[in-house]
Amino acid sequence: MTDASVIDRSAARVAGAPILQVDDLRVTFDVPLRGAWPWTPPRKLHAVGGISFDLRPGEVLGVVGESGSGKSTLARAIVGTVPSTGRIRFDGQDLGRLSPEERRARRRDIQMIFQDPLAALNPRMTVGDIIAEPLRTHFPQTSRAEARTRVSELMERVGLLPNLQNRYPHEFSGGQCQRIGIARALILRPKLLICDEPVSALDVSVQAQVVNLLRELRRELGIAMIFIAHDLSVVRHISDRILVMYLGRLMEMAEARQVVEQPKHPYTQFLISSVPIPDPALEKARPRPVLEGDLPSPLSPPSGCVFRTRCPKAKPRCAEVPPPPYDVGPGHVATCHYWQEPTPMVADAGAVIVESEAQA
Amino acid sequence: MAVTDPTATPLAAPARPDKGRSLWTDARRRFFRNKAAVVALVVLVLIALFAFFGGLVARYDRETVDFTLMGVNARNGGPSLATGHYFGVDDSGRDLYARTVQGTRLSLMIGLVGSLVAVLVGTLYGAISGYIGGRTDGVMMRIVDILLSIPFMFVLILMLVMFGRSLLMLFIGIGLTSWLGMARIARGQTLSIKNKEFVEAAIATGVKRSAIILRHVVPNLLGVVIVYATLLIPDMIIYESFISFLGLGVQEPNTSLGALISQGARQILSGGEAAWQLWFPLGFFVATLFAFYFVGDGLRDALDPKDR
């Protein structure tokens, strides 16, 4: 489905050796039929269907898409907590070819932050032990005192009092728990940080603080990040590039500005036009197109282009030929046969946002 | 970024680490607020002290036969502080106090050993089975199902008949059955725990499987395991008493509460009048069971506050 040559051309433009190369990544889950015989073949759920991208050191790639679009599964496949096919090269090493023990050792360079900050912390462990766990795992010879010092430094860095080390997770608020999660992810100084909707479970005011903290950390430590969210307005503040997913497929990928200001794929255009604008006059004046229908079941995705069932400009060809990632601009790919044609209702989606920001 | 940040705690406070309030601390506080459970715990402690140190105040040992009282215990061998037979003597003229102390001790030990095996073997077995999952889980749990489907009472009786009645056989028999139910419970809990994000975080960090089971799964199982273990102890005691009641359990001169109750009941049935021979062991038996059930109940409320 993925046209490799298209991807390679866009990858060639990326400066510096990529730290992460994902090539035709697929994640398929077996869904056993209820009440069926044990030997009946299970149905296949294609959570991620062929995603390819590169990530440079220090770059932040935002991944957006609605619930069920396979964003989190993509993250878990890269981290390696769900089995996947395709190729993931990290630092020039094919992760799929490593032995389980080598893979386990490699995990110290890829760390993850989770959506539900409290659920991601073991309720029976103290915060200090939780943050020190990666250190204990990969450097078992670290002395207790040294681990404590490292934990204190890190807690201070993420905005927590170091003398709260002996407290338990349930004694902290959601925002503080997320800071604990960030400290745990950073203690090994990873090269890649995967943030799986790190702010969607938090209050809006706390969201901004956590996003700002991640931005600061990124500037200081130069970590590459994959930042997942269903909310485009959060993602575009932190990302260099944005990847838009729908039903496990890549819809569009480009520089963050490009995606927001000149979206080419009709799905991205709908997403952009649903981002609220903090200006009542503009907000009222602009058209609010609503994406009709629901996300199709990933158990039986539509033929051809997966978005065609909800696309206002779908044509017969969309049902027959799955669109390859078209090169629609410098470093900009969109998987739509008719990306050059204007989409009804949402053609100027990006322009309104540009206008509102120009005024601000 | 001039925004003040309420989730970021100010750094002015002293650097002395303060003590956290763990879930165990919370549970302990909830447990001690439960009056019935605390009373039951006190009773249990007293019974345990009686069982392990009661022998120090006994004036006779459990096997010395007082020939002057043999056969006439109903008339002359009643409970009395003056003679030193605090609980009287049984129909063979042996001191019932010393025998009750030893019987209670044996019953408690049977209960403790049974639930200790259950906690150690059952928890680990269930946690490993549930955490690994898939085919391994299927095989491990089918083994438990098969063992559970064997009527262990008969097997134990056969074992005691074939290999001779001994304390060791009894412990082996109790140990063999007690962990099965625990393994199932631990596995069920593990299935829900292993899908929690903190386990995924540990996997993503690169923690070894064995460390995940011991550090992340088992501590979160312990609440349920402890409750089940305290409720298992009385079951084990009843189990042993039943065997002893049938006359297959411990061998003379050792005794257990079940054996004592059996002798007392037989003595009354055959027209004896030494009622204390039944009431003392029965009283300790019932008190022990009640206390364990109340403590177990209190622990469940304390460790699992959502269920109330």
UniProtKB/TrEMBL annotation, chain A:
The entry's keywords: ATP-binding, Nucleotide-binding, Transport
Ranges where the ABC transporter domain occurs: 20-272
A single GO cellular-component term on record: plasma membrane
Protein's UniProt name: Oligopeptide transport ATP-binding protein OppF
Membrane topology: Peripheral membrane protein
The family this protein is said to belong to: Belongs to the ABC transporter superfamily.
Cellular localization per UniProt: Cell inner membrane
PROSITE patterns registered for this protein in UniProt: ABC_TRANSPORTER_1, ABC_TRANSPORTER_2
InterPro entries hit by this protein: AAA+_ATPase (IPR003593), ABC_transp_ATP-bind (IPR050319), ABC_transporter-like_ATP-bd (IPR003439), ABC_transporter-like_CS (IPR017871), Oligopep_ABC_C (IPR013563), P-loop_NTPase (IPR027417)
Pfam family for this entry, one: ABC_tran
From TrEMBL, chain B:
Main location group: membrane
Keywords: Cell inner membrane, Cell membrane, Membrane, Peptide transport, Protein transport, Transmembrane, Transmembrane helix, Transport
Localisation per UniProt entry: Cell inner membrane; Cell membrane
Family membership noted in the UniProt record: Belongs to the binding-protein-dependent transport system permease family. OppBC subfamily.
GO biological process: peptide transport; protein transport; transmembrane transport
Source domain of life: Bacteria
Name of the protein: Oligopeptide transport system permease protein OppC
PANTHER family: OLIGOPEPTIDE TRANSPORT SYSTEM PERMEASE PROTEIN APPC, OLIGOPEPTIDE TRANSPORT SYSTEM PERMEASE PROTEIN OPPC
Ranges of residues in domain ABC transmembrane type-1: 104-291
InterPro entries xref list: BP-dependent_transpt_permease (IPR050366), MetI-like (IPR000515), MetI-like_sf (IPR035906), OppC_N (IPR025966)
Entry annotated with the keyword Membrane: yes
Transmembrane intervals: 38-60, 106-127, 139-161, 167-186, 217-239, 278-296
One of the Pfam families matching this protein, by short name: OppC_N
Annotated GO CC locations: plasma membrane
Taxonomic source organism: Rubellimicrobium mesophilum DSM 19309
Membrane-topology annotation of the record: Multi-pass membrane protein
